[in-house]
Design a protein that fits this description.
One of its GO terms (molecular function) is metal ion binding. The protein has 296 residues and is α/β, with parallel strands linked by helices. It contains 10 helices and 11 strands. The relative contact order is 0.16. The protein binds zinc ion.
């Protein structure tokens, strides 16, 4: 029969075993310890049983219903999302609301959900490290050091480009590195202004302006820059540095998923486990189109 001609799968022929949810959680703790999470955060296992075997893991930024569709269609037994499904306390997980519906579908399908949020931001190789690396920064250090971590762990990163470049050229580079989303990239500052020292923070970073100024950064790349913090920062800079580059929150964190998946795969492989790990292909940026002056 034709299927007998197929090579046997590693599960059948190798010595590797499939990890349980609990064993994946131990690997997660090794890479992104819970002690690095901010006090207000909610990380770790959200739904699922520790003794269930996991042969397929899907990484995603957001645990949306569309991501869940993708996970279940692929046969994943675990989703690792960056954003928590439940950050604020709840009184009900009834399926009458979107979060309860996701929880019901997870449990009914036997798919677990775990969150790696600010612990993933802060850790070495975390979200902002990946951004710094993608932008070509060197001599990288945290904008705000973690209280409980190593000197290289903490929120945001600051480092230097190999050469001074114009704000316009750097913004173009940021645009080309991040995934394509409807909102694009917004920039505040002189197009021809030269920059070399770059501060980055994946996700919403507008609470970090004091640290950005203290770091002597020429430009700050982050997401979700609201009017007042951005406006006040530009006033303080009197039109000069630090310039601002506002990117998609989703996009700034999405870049981390592939190296995170690879890092988890390496830890599990080193422990003799066999799992298939994928990054979600769903764009969970909430915006669909944008109008700018001069649009047709
Ligand atoms: Zn985020």
């Amino acid at each position: 029969m034709e299927e007998n001609l197929q090579p046997s799968s590693p599960e059948q022929s190798g010595t590797e075993t499939v990890p349980t949810v609990g064993e994946v959680l131990l690997a997660i703790e090794e890479l992104w310890p819970e002690s690095l999470a901010e006090g207000w955060d909610a990380v770790g296992l959200v739904a699922g049983r520790a003794d269930v075997e996991v042969s397929r893991i899907l990484f995603a930024v957001d645990p949306t219903s569309e991501v869940l569709d993708e996970a279940l269609a692929w046969g994943a037994q675990l989703i690792i999302s960056h954003h928590p499904l439940l950050l604020k306390p709840v009184n009900s997980v009834a399926a009458t609301g979107p979060k309860g519906e996701v929880l019901h579908r997870l449990i009914e399908s036997g798919c677990a959900l775990a969150t790696v949020h600010t612990n993933g931001d802060s850790a070495v190789g975390g979200v902002s490290d990946v951004l710094a690396d993608a932008f070509g920064l060197s001599e990288v250090k945290p904008l705000v050091r973690s209280q409980d971590g190593l000197p290289e762990e903490g929120i945001g990163r600051v480092g230097n480009l190999p050469d001074a470049t114009t704000l316009a050229d750097f913004a173009e580079s940021v645009f080309s590195i991040l995934p394509s989303v409807a909102g694009g990239v917004r920039v505040a500052g002189d197009k021809d202004g030269l920059i070399r020292r770059v501060a980055v923070c994946g996700g919403a970073g507008d609470s970090l302006f004091d640290a950005v100024r203290a770091s002597q950064a020429d430009v700050f790349v982050t997401a979700d820059l609201r009017h007042h913090p951005a406006s006040e920062a530009r006033e303080r800079a009197a039109g000069g540095r630090p310039y601002l580059i506002d990117v998609s929150h989703f996009g700034s964190e999405w870049l981390w998923l592939t190296p995170a998946a690879a890092a988890l795969g390496n830890v599990l492989t080193d422990q003799g486990f066999l799992t298939d790990i994928r990054v979600s292909s769903v764009n969970t940026d909430p915006w669909d189109f944008v109008l700018t002056p001069g649009h047709a």
